């Protein structure tokens, strides 16, 4: 019964989040709150083979990207006034300091690509938001390679595998699995 309740709560949270996004985009369309780009996860695409990796390692995918802190404040006020719930906002004007890091050519162990470099966007203005969320996280095939690259050398890297296992620069790891239940 607890598992059913957890799934119900997940569905309810998703509905609430969709409602928040729908209402904010309506405010943008009406001209009341210009400067809203949308949900970070909707602003870019990545090859399907990397979907689990990015979903696991990129928690800010549900953040709402806006142009400025002022726009973010307007959105927060709107959500409060309309009692719509809570959302996280990412202001692009505060990400400018990341531009040099974002654009630097990456020299990585074993030529492991940065996950950030695999993202395709229609509007390059949102790239700093993706860099904020991913930084220099590398993507590799398996946990053995992730461990070797992430914490096995002189320099440490945050690394994610295609299965979504993560090796942090601190040495901590996230991963595992569970067999699917059959009902």
TrEMBL record:
CC per GO annotation: condensin complex
UniProt key word Nucleotide-binding: yes
Entry GO MF terms: ATP binding
SMART domains listed in its UniProt record: SMC_hinge (SM00968)
Alphabetic keyword roster: ATP-binding, Nucleotide-binding, Nucleus
InterPro entries: SMC_hinge, SMC_hinge_sf
Name recorded for this polypeptide: SMC hinge domain-containing protein
Species, as recorded: Gongylonema pulchrum
């Amino acid at each position: 019964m607890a598992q059913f309740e957890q799934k119900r709560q997940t569905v309810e949270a998703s509905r609430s989040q969709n409602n928040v996004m729908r209402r904010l985009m309506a405010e943008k369309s009406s001209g009341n709150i210009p400067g809203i780009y949308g949900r970070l996860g909707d602003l870019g695409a990545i090859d399907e083979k990397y979907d689990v990796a990015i979903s696991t390692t990129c928690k800010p995918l549900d953040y709402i990207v806006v142009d400025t802190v002022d726009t973010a404040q307007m959105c927060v006020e709107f959500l409060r006034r309309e009692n719509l719930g809570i959302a996280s906002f990412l202001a692009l004007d505060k990400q400018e300091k990341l531009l040099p890091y974002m654009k630097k050519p990456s020299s990585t162990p074993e030529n492991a690509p940065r996950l950030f470099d695999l993202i395709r966007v229609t509007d390059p203005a949102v790239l700093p938001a993706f860099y904020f969320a991913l930084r220099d996280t590398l993507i590799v095939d398996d946990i053995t390679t992730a461990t070797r690259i992430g914490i096995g050398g002189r320099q440490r890297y945050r690394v994610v595998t295609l299965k979504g296992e993560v090796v942090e620069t601190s040495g901590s790891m996230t991963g595992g699995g569970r067999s699917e239940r059959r009902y």
